[in-house]
Each structure stands twice: as structure tokens, then as C-alpha cells.
Amino acid sequence: DGGITQSPKYLFRKEGQNVTLSCEQNLNHDAMYWYRQDPGQGLRLIYYSQIVNDFQKGDIAEGYSVSREKKESFPLTVTSAQKNPTAFYLCASSVIAGGGLNEQFFGPGTRLTVL
Amino acid sequence: AQKVTQAQTEISVVEKEDVTLDCVYETRDTTYYLFWYKQPPSGELVFLIRRNSFDEQNEISGRYSWNFQKSTSSFNFTITASQVVDSAVYFCALSEGVNTNAGKSTFGDGTTLTVKP
After folding, report:
1. Is B52 on the interface with A (CB under 8 A)?
2. Can you tell me the distance from the alpha carbon of B75 to that of B66, in angstroms, rounded to the nearest whole number?
3. Which candidate from A40, A48, A107 shows the least CB-CB separation from B104?
4. Does the pLDDT value for residue B99 go beyond 80?
């Protein structure tokens, strides 16, 4: 089955540690996205990538970093510079052709708790 | 800049009631796309519908219907005869049609719908 996988589902880290969240897709989509969701709030865009080896900052990129070395993979690193990293992180992908008309497909999310 | 407002934070209804979720958007583009997604308790968002700015026809899919009105910049979502399985957070989203931001969506804060038996 085609889709997006995120691992792990729950992640606990000590304050001050960097942590990398995994996102893999086998949908052959060009674009991939990372969102952060806090309780009672919508999705805020962290980073997105439209092509391999290229990515752009979203609305809340500070304290995060990404890489896009392969089309199917878009890992997100939450660094110690992120002031409040505890949140639910969602990865998504979409087809690029046609501009903004394509819906996004989402992974199951990773709930990160920093202790 | 684009913006999506979902003024209803939480809605609670009893099963079989009809319920409408409101979505108001702002954009300067003439070409744009509107979406609704459903986020069940499991957390994964599921795509429900897409509408482009040139198509104001309303759409019905089973118990779901959508009303798109450019004059009021609204894209409302109605569930008829609600069921407990409809309980979820629903997000409205907006994408602009320009290639430089291709695929980038702005999401509303979501409306949490609770359907009680």
C-alpha cells in the first residue's frame, strides 16, 4: 500500500538534546512538508521541499532543520534551539504539477515530548 | 498573505442532527484552491474535498455537502444526519495557484466536532 510513514509514534527526549523525526513516502510525490500541531491549534508549516536537495522555510522554521537527499525521505531535526519542542509533528506529501491544486497526504504523526 | 478562519472552535451535536462547519478565507490571488480535511482521534489528516476558485458549484457526497461562495469568501461544510463516527477535528485549508508556492497550504485552526449518541 502506498502512503507516508512516520516513526516513532511517540518520542521522549531530554531537554537540550537534538532529535530527528523520520518521514518516508512511497507515493512518488515531489513535494513534502512538515507541520507542527499544538493542542487546540491548527497546523503550522515548519519546512517544505518541492524537489530533492532543495527546501524552504515555512512559518516557524527557527530551531528546526531538514534535509532532502532522496525523493522519498524528508527527516526533521528538532534542535536544542527550539524553545518549546513538545508538540505533535505531521509530515505530508503532494504532487507538484498544477500548482496549489493538489491535496496533501499525511502521515500518522509523531508526538514528541521533551522532559 | 493568505488566511483561513474557522471561528467555531468546538461544536457538539446529538446523533442525527445536521451540523455546518464554517470557513472564511482571505487571499489576493484570483486562482486558488480550498480544501477540507478530517483529523480523527488517531491523528492522521484525511483529505475530503478540493474546490478551485473558478468553480462555485456546490458539491454533495453522501451525507457531506460543501457550499462555496466567493462573494462572502466562505467555504462551509455541512454534515447531514451526523453520526458518532463523524467526531473529529475538521480543517479548512487554502492554497494559492502560483508556482513559487506550489502546494503550500494555509490551514485554519480547526473545528472539533463531537457527535453524541
Report:
1. yes
2. 7
3. A48
4. no
B42 touches chain A (CB under 8 A): yes
Chain A residues within an 8 Å CB radius of B47: 103-105
Rg (CA), chain B: 14
Compute the CA torsion angle B97, A37, B6, A94 (nearest 10 deg): 30
Q: How far apart are CA A2 and CA A20, in angstroms?
A: 23
Share of residues in chain B with pLDDT > 70 (%) = 94
Cell of A29: 510525490
- C-alpha dihedral sign at A26, A32, A38, A40: negative
Nearest to B103 among A40, A43, A94 (CB): A94
Question: According to the model, what pLDDT value does residue B72 have?
Answer: 95
> A113: part of which helix (H) or strand (E)?
strand A110-114
Cβ-based contacts of A45 with chain B (< 8 Å): 104-105
- For A2-15, the pLDDT digits (tens) are 799 998 999 999 98
From the CA of A74, how many Å to the nearest CA of chain B?
A: 16
Residues 6+ apart with CB under 8 A from A90: A6, A34, A35, A36, A37, A43, A106, A107, A109, B43, B44, B45
Weakest mean pLDDT among A68-72, B53-57, B72-76: B53-57
Kindly state whether B35 is in contact with chain A, defined as any CB-CB distance less than 8 angstroms. Answer: yes
Which of A50, A92, A99 shows the shortest C-beta gap to B97? Answer: A99
Cell output for B77: 461544510
